[in-house]
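seq as requested:
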Amino acid sequence: MPLLSYNISKSLEDKLIEIEKIRRDLLLMPLSLKDSSRLKWESKIERVFFALSFEGTNIQKEEIAKLLTSPTKKHLKSTEKEALFYANTFGFLEYKWLVSDNTPDSDSVLNLYNIITPIKSKKEMKSFKKTRKKIDYLFEYLETGNLNPVIQSAIAYIQLLALSPFKKQSTKISMLTSYLLLYKNAYDFRGFLVLEKHFTNDMDNLQKAIKNVYEKRSLTPWLNYFSNSLFLQCREIIDKAGKKEFKLKQTHSLGELNERQKQILTFLERPGENITNKKVQKMFKISQITASRDLSKLTNLSLLFAHGKGRSVYYTRV
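struct tokens:
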């Protein structure tokens, strides 16, 4: 689908202003580190839950919480792997794209795919190569002018959904690319945003909004729908943060980390510092398995980000 025209109506402008106001109010809201961490943790679990639910995959929120705090289980089910990989993507987005000067391109989309799909197929990569130039053109277009981050995110979602660079992951890739552009422009809402929730709970209207794009050959209806969805999410976020409403029984707080894990985080507070499994073993005189458990837990809690694979992997603070 080629880039389509659209109009910014007065009602859409007002909605964008309201979203920006909530964003600023949320940034100024006094939240303790413990409460902020807990809200962010629950949001991460909800993102995974609704992303999988959207595609018909059944997994309970409590199962996701347990999986992220105990990621060293040897034999993971396919659903558990899917949940874990999707959750890990947000550590990458925070580390790589949050308030970033980097310019997104087709490789950025490929990086997202590599995180959520470790096993590649030649057919999928062939499909991606066919759409690479169109994806690059899309990002060039979004970088031109002074488009509101919400508009950028909405356009990226619908265009990538149409391009489907990876047939089996088109919905997730579209959603994650939307997040990438929001994070890049500081629209992460303190990590509390769960776009997947409204889309999953409003499936009929979502499908109608997407269908309208093709029938009317205009992005305007879609921009209105996406912006309204984001606005409703923002209202829910500010309300939940203000009331400190915690819904999950199994929630994470920094107090649940052991002293060794806290020391790893303190060590990595120095700018440019990184750590490896071997370094953790030497620092605390522990086994390779225990070091792996510590690093895996911190990574899956979005406190660390893992770079590389295998023996060359190292970790940095998110």
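The chain has two domains: 10-243, 257-317.
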